Amino acid sequence: MKQLETSTFNHVYLSSLDASRLASDDISDYWRKLGLTDEISQQVELCVVEMVNNAFIHAYDSQEGLPIELSCDLDEQKQQLHVRITDQGSVMTPQQFKQALANEFIEPDPSDDETWTTSGRGFVIVSSLMDRVELSTMDDKNTYLMVKQLDPS
Asked: At what angle do helices 121-129 and 38-54 cross, to 10 degrees?
């Protein structure tokens, strides 16, 4: 792991279909500077894309121009990457959040249109790739914390 002058990434994106791509591009550069492996970077990048899309589509009901905050820091002592996605949209109840993380991935079957849905897969992907996922709500902000344990190197 390389030592950076700043160990925190912070940026606010305006909700849109493009926000996840912009966030992904920006934070990927940050991770390269941190010296993360390609495998870890790709896994966490997918999770960022899923969660930023989730904020736009579900929390903001596809309304454009609302803030989605992305922050990331490296806990060097614990060798953990902490990624936070914050929105000010609709809130998931703790039960809905728990259920979303517990859902199983359903492989799309070309002969069964019931399996074609794209909704609900994001949290399944995130929970399978991250070591910990938490939701906290304070005032008007919903923050999803995703933690990835890094291999000591």
From this structure: 150
Strand order in the sheet with 141-149: 8-14, 67-75, 80-87, 141-149, 132-138
Q: How many domains does the chain have?
A: 1
Output the pTM of the full model: 0.83
For residue 82, the cross-strand partners are: 73, 147
Task: Give 54-90 pLDDT, tens digit per residue.
Answer: 999 999 999 999 999 999 999 988 899 999 999 999 9
Tokens representing residue 4 in the block: 């950076």
CATH number of the domain at 60, please: 3.30.565.10
Tokens read off for 45: 């990048």
